[in-house]
Design a protein that fits this description.
The complex is a heterodimer of chains A (119) and B (111). Chain A has 119 residues and is mostly beta strands. Chain A has no helices and eleven strands. In chain B, the strands form two sheets. In chain B, strands 2, 4, 5, 9, 10 and 11 form a six-stranded mixed β-sheet that branches. In chain B, a hairpin with a 7-residue loop joins strand 9 and strand 10. Classes of the chains: A mainly beta (119), B mainly beta (111).
């Protein structure tokens, strides 16, 4: 089946530094990937839609200069949390759609997530 | 906006049946998904409904009523490993068919 690999699984950084999270689709090409954020005991919140070869589409309230997304190839999207602060500490999950087209049962396959802790 | 409601927590006994409800009010609708998520892990796909009715897949079944904005996930013959969060997600009709998630229902299966 389709697999999405996300790295790193855990990262601890100092306030003010930047952190990059990678999301790779294995054995399939993903022209579109999605980045979610999840707080403890809360829902997955869509942050942005990453489109290969073009700019990401950010959801309302998400700072695009804070959360830089690059989708340089059909198998890799990266999320960079710039000048991280403690309030950015969260669980970040990427996903990619496996299957043709937009509709039907084409499901999202999720990465294992990256837990960011900003000290 | 999107509003998707699920109970926060449920407890059920091993071997029993449990039903997790989900109600939604969304600006568009193009399918409803159920995902299972164990703590600290990625959500995994369980089921998909786009038409009214019941979809059965082994021990898991999912039901949808579009007119009522309602779905449920039914888990039969509960096993301890079914303890997890169950996420209801609605796909809108936007260009990228985004998924909007409910807060998830944390199910605890007890012996």
């Amino acid at each position: 089946g389709a697999v999405v690999s996300q790295h790193p699984s855990r990262v601890i950084c100092k306030s003010g530094t930047s952190v990059k999270i990678e999301c790779r689709s294995l054995d399939f090409q993903a022209t579109t990937m999605f980045w979610y954020r999840q707080f403890p005991k809360k829902s997955l919140m869509l942050m942005a839609t990453s489109n290969e070869g073009s700019k990401a589409t950010y959801e309302q309230g998400v700072e695009k200069d804070k959360f830089l997304i690059n989708h340089a190839s059909l198998t890799l999207s990266t999320l960079t949390v710039t000048s991280a602060h403690p309030e950015d500490s969260s669980f970040y999950i990427c996903s990619a759609r496996f299957g043709p087209g937009w509709g039907g049962a084409n499901v999202l396959t999720f990465g294992a997530g990256s837990r960011l802790t900003v000290l | 906006g999107q509003n998707i409601d699920q109970p926060t927590e449920m407890t059920a006994t091993e071997g029993a049946i449990v039903q997790i409800n989900c109600t939604y009010q969304t600006s568009g609708f193009n399918g409803l998904f159920w995902y299972q998520q164990h703590a600290g892990e990625a959500p995994t796909f369980l089921s998909y409904n786009v038409l009214d009715g019941l979809e059965e897949k082994g021990r898991f079944s999912s039901f949808l009523s579009r007119s009522k904005g309602y779905s449920y996930l039914l888990l039969k013959e509960l096993q301890m490993k079914d303890s997890a969060s169950y996420l209801c997600a609605v796909r809108d009709q936007g260009g990228a068919n985004n998924l909007f998630f409910g807060t998830g229902t944390r199910l605890t299966v007890i012996p």
